[in-house]
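Hi L.,

You mentioned the student needs an example of a multi-chain input paired with its predicted structure. This one should do, with 606 residues in total across all chains.
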Amino acid sequence: MTTLHQVPAPRTRKLPWRSWGTFLLLAGPNVALLVVFVYKPLVQNVQYSLLHWNLGSDTATYVGLQNYVNYFTNPKTPTVLLTTLVFAVVTVGGCMALGLALARLLDRNLRGRTFVRAAVFAPYVLSGVAVGMCWLFVFDPQYGLVSGLLRAVGIGSPNWYNDPDWALAMVCVVYLWKYVGYVAIIYLAALQSVPHDILEAAQIDGASPLRTFWSIVFPLLSPTTFFLGVTVFIESNAGGSFDIIRAMTKGGPLEGTTTMVYQVYQEAFVDGSAGYASAIATLLFLALLVVTVVQMVVVERKVHYR
Amino acid sequence: MSVQEKATSGSGRIPAPRSGDGGPARPRRRRVDVLGYAGLVVAGLVMVVPMLWMLLASFKQRNEIYTIPSQWLPHALQWQNYADVFATVPFAHFLLNSVITTVAGAGLKVVLGLMCAYALVFVEFPAKRLVFLVVLAALMVPPQVTLIPNYTLIAQIGWLNSYQGIVLPGLASSLGTFLFRQHFQTLPASVLEAATLDGAGHWRRLWQFVVPLSAPTVSAVALVSVVGEWNQYLWPLLVTDRSEMMTLPVGLTLLQNNDGITNWGVLMAGTVLVMLPILLVFLFFQRRLVAGLAAGALAN
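Structure written out for the whole complex:
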């Protein structure tokens, strides 16, 4: 590939400023965007959390840690924290357990598994709002699919939208339905990369399939389990649940489905308390950071890397 | 057996008969397979039936939806619900806005990620490690934390209800940069040396040599980005309040309580229309998409 007028090759070693310039031109835009839209706002958010400030108003007063004090003395807070915790435990635990079970199922030589694999994974690529709308109709207390099925077997359907506990259960089910495919697909990819000779050796040694799984396959999957545990946890607590909750329940009834993620939006953009919402966002960030770091430190010791 | 297993497990198409097993293992294997098929059927039904329910409802007349017990099949395919979607909200605008923001957002994200990853691998710079950490650590910042400051900034510079306001704040590429960097490190040095000897500058080396050699990774990351942009909801919800500027997921909620009571037929038709494009993308590029996600999962 010769050109008519030869351009001299960049002499990177002799002209450091030149390679610096190249580096800044290539990496600069991406890094600048990260600084402007991720790192600067991260700091700003902490500053905002020290203000009494309503979105849209020009005046803000410095109140120190008052927003944090208000948060922990607000009677709504225990409910929201409990909802957040229940939602996280059910969705993360459910996604991991069901995802692994599905991956094992789809790893077998069964007719039709290609179709089921696609069906299980498809919801992951769909809009959370659209999924929420679809399931809103499925759970409709009068004309929905679930109430119809329950009626067919002679049970009355609970009013999923009006009871806080049922509403939370409903949102969890929909979240699991949407996200379990992702976990299953990643586990499936990992299962298929387990070296086959190890499994054969176990079979020759007379290990039962169950024993083989728990003693050999599961430990080999531990890096995947670790990765999924962290990412699924972050997804469920940092945005993934927002679309579904907003489409289905708008945080209600009576804060029954208000998680911290939803609360940040609600306080800032519906109720207008931007300073208070910033304090919740800061707390959410710290909580996620702590849990993730603990996950990393604790699990790191138990992960078997190949 | 191992050869057969390996041959079929990757492609996942035709189940090969398991021959050569010992005699006593057979009865148990057969029972397990019955359980397996039961599992497949249950999983398939749970995943498909809600979608089917929605699809059928989108073709039903009003009185067919509001009957107890509910009927499964519409008497005749009614396209009226789909027409109503376009008549009650500016749905064509939503569609256009979604296409524009998705193409611009995903395209620029991939380009920025490629440039950044190239610089991180092939250009000399003293603080490369630090820059890489700055890129990667951003993955740990949940979007809720940056929401209020970003909204304030976009509002101040007058970018509410604009494409740049929707696209720009989410543009920086962290995961893409990471995956590209991982892949670039595996490229053979000889190819790039040849390109350098030919007199290609960094820019040409990136687009004429490195990117073509990384085509599978690039397309996988591009697909994941397209899916992400298309489904983005919270940010477009905040920065658009004029309906002509809304994207599909935001606009869909306008169908919800149009006349006080939810008109399920129309809402389900709108939902089908929002899901359909990305579902087609999924069906065509399933393997690539999975490859992109799995690369992210297995890259460490």
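You could point out the following to them. Chain B touches chain A through 115 residues (CB under 8 Å). Residues 70 and 134 of chain B are 55 Å apart (CA to CA).

Best wishes,
N.
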